[in-house]
Specification:
Helix content is 54%, strand content 16%. It is built from 12 helices and 8 strands. The strands form 3 sheets. Strands 3-4-5-6 form a 4-stranded antiparallel β-sheet. It is elongated and about 80 Å long.
């Protein structure tokens, strides 16, 4: 992976301030894959994107990730702290069976591709549009929207299924698609299952690497900008000159400023 410099990282952070989850995840993915176009990044399977972001995290901040969760037991609520290994988590990448994801169920034979970020965004937008004029969509409707987007080909009873039929895939087909996608792309969703050391209750939580990495980048950027302010005030250097210094040299100059 190409190591992104501090100036580029600050530009990524600045651009992300005006965006939310999906937009920030795209910016971080672009930092992980410099030169890749937006459409290509948005079509990458979710587990592949997560692996790229874990790799970026290792490059920027190392392997050790500290996570804090509150115990799910209402009577306990203890804060649990533990470490994760970004290298280990980033090693989980999609493995699609030869010939793609093929689901055979009843009189249906459907070939799917793995979902990407663009698919999730489109499904969320479609679900929002529906709820603006009708009752809220249920989980099955959402799964159908996603399956229809990811369907590459569909045969029903020996004939090509119509677009309308694909949009109304039966629940057993949806279930088989979800199972096949999870098996091929286990890193698409990372769920932590932690036993509380105080009460023993099990607590589950999803680890969103994009959100986690953005929080770290935000803290890093604000610290670097403070360094720039202090060194520029003390020495009259420009921001590019200060950012060109290694972190070690920058820290040494800051220590000299504090001792002066």
């Amino acid at each position: 992976m190409t190591v992104t410099g501090p100036a580029e990282l600050l530009a990524t952070w600045e651009a992300g301030l005006a965006r939310q989850g999906g937009g920030r995840a795209l910016l971080l993915h672009r930092a992980a894959r410099p030169g890749a176009d937006t459409d290509a990044l948005l079509s990458v399977p979710l587990g592949e994107r997560a692996a790229d972001l874990f790799a970026l995290r290792r490059t920027l901040f190392g392997d050790r990730m500290q996570v804090t969760l509150d115990c799910a037991d209402a009577e306990c609520g203890a804060a649990m702290e533990f470490d994760l290994d970004a290298g280990e988590l980033g090693a989980v990448r999609p493995v699609v069976p030869e010939g793609g994801l093929r689901v055979t169920e009843g009189d249906w034979v459907v070939e799917f591709r793995l979902p990407g970020a663009a698919d999730l965004a489109a499904v969320a937008a479609a679900a929002t549009a529906v709820t603006d004029v009708t009752d809220a969509t249920d989980a099955t409707d959402t799964r159908r929207l996603l399956a229809a987007r990811c369907a590459v080909s569909a045969v029903r009873g020996g004939r090509a299924a119509t677009a309308a039929e694909v949009r109304r895939l039966p629940e057993p087909v949806l279930k088989r698609f979800a199972e096949a996608a999870e098996a091929a792309d286990p890193g698409a969703e990372l769920t932590l299952a932690i036993a509380c050391p105080e009460c023993g209750a099990a607590t589950s939580a999803e680890l969103d690497i994009a959100a986690y990495l953005w929080t770290e980048l935000d803290a890093w950027a604000r610290e670097v900008l403070l360094d720039v302010h202090l060194l520029a005030s003390a020495y009259g250097w420009s921001e590019p000159q200060i950012l060109a210094l290694s972190p070690q040299r920058r820290r040494y100059y800051l220590e000299l400023c504090a001792d002066a």
